[in-house]
Amino acid sequence: MCPSLLSLLGLGLCVSLRIWAAVGKYEKLSLSAWPSPMVPLGQNVTLRCHSRSPLNRFRLFKTDGKRRLPKLQGHYFNNFTLGPVTKEHAGSYMCSVANWSALSDPLQIVVTGVSTKPTISAHPGPLVQVGENVTLRCHSLVWFDNFTLHQENSTGLSQRPGQMLTGGYAAADFFIGPMTLASAGTYRCYGSLRRSPYEWSTPSDPVDIIITGRSKKPSLSAQGGPVVRSGENVTLVCSFESAFDQFHLLRDGGGPWAPARCQADSSNPLFLSVTGSTTSTCPSTMDPHTTEEAPLPQEHSSMWHIVLGLSVAFTSISIILSALVCHWCSTQNRKSEGGELSVI
User: How far is the CA of 108 from the CAs of 37, 105, 112, 116, 199, in angstroms?
Assistant: First the structure.
């Protein structure tokens, strides 16, 4: 009975292997990149070929045919590590079963940090209410042929051709709207050239698109008052009746009278005035936003104390000297009178 059982087990194994081989022959493979298909210059990335068959061995290759990586040719298991990446690693990749019977869809590996970063800005501003629109502009002094916009924690990418604008820089506008909760977040943009579409610039500094107006407005105040001497520190306190994980402080515009706001919905503006500077504008005493009188500058106060102390000391010394002179004069007079009496 044991030989029969062993024969059945062997037959089942052979059938299973043939089934897996047939599945691997016709199945659609998939190729993924970890941690991301956008790889900074000098970092590593792992490409994985996914298959339902556990017995397959795979081959990874570039599809552009321009830059070959000989070390990737041959038979491997399903994990391939690239790196530290260079510009030569940028391109489109596919994986296949070792006998070329199945192919994955191509996966684009983008190498970032190849050129200087562009600049990103939000118009009319980064604070948007639900249903409103915002335009993100990417621009650079480098004449990039294309700009790509990427939202953090999202796999979606938007690409626009660069336009040459007056002033000698390239720019592209990305229209976002009507605004939804999913549209809020952190955005960066990249620049690239037409001749090397998988080689991108360093990412721009981030811009945070924030949705406002979904709760009551908080209050904003300045500890010690809104009038501050140039060079001193000031603490702004943003408070709200409910608990928030984060507050956003916004400075509208520029110059000495720029108000600061904190965001849940927008608070009322708080105007900060900087004193003691030739370029600053001091607030009027009738300004409704000024809640306290401006304190006397410390340098003037210290000088006044010194002058006052010297005046008191000079007056005291003068009084003492006058008293001593009077005492000396009276003593001399007494001596003179005593001498005259002796002569008589």
Answer: 7, 10, 13, 22, 11
CA–CA distance, 200 with 192 (Å, rounded to integer): 5
Residue 32 has which token pair?
């993924």
Sequence-distant (6+) residues with CB within 8 A of 39 are 33, 45, 82, 83, 85, 89, 109, 110, 111, 112
| Range with top average pLDDT, 60-64, 115-119, 221-225 | 115-119
Residues 8-34: tens digit of each pLDDT: 445 544 444 444 444 445 567 889 999
Tokens standing for 111?
Answer: 């190498």
H helices then E strands: how many in the chain?
2, 24
Residue 303's CB is within 10 A of a number of other CB atoms, namely 11
H or E element, residue 200? strand 196-200
- Contact call for residues 57 and 97 (beta carbons, < 8 A): yes
Distance CA 267, CA 14 (A): 73
* Residue labelled with tokens 């062993």: 6
The Cα 188–Cα 119 span in angstroms is: 9
Q: What does the pLDDT look like over 76-115, one tens digit per residue?
A: 567 888 989 999 999 999 888 876 667 889 999 999 999 9
Q: Are 134 and 208 in contact (CB under 8 A)?
A: no
pTM for this model (two decimals): 0.62
What pLDDT does residue 38 have? 95
Report yes or no: 62 and 68 within 8 Å, Cβ to Cβ.
yes
Q: What's the full length of the chain, in residues?
A: 344
Between CA 266 and CA 214 the distance in angstroms is: 10
Alpha-helical (H) ranges within the chain are 2-26, 298-343
Q: Name the band, by pLDDT with cuts 50, 70 and 90, for residue 307.
A: low
Q: What is the DSSP letter of 282?
A: P
Distances (CA, A) of 326 to 42, 318, 336, 337: 93, 12, 15, 17
- Cα dihedral 63→67→70→72 (10° resolution): -40
CB contact set of 182 (below 8 Å; sequence gap of 6+): none
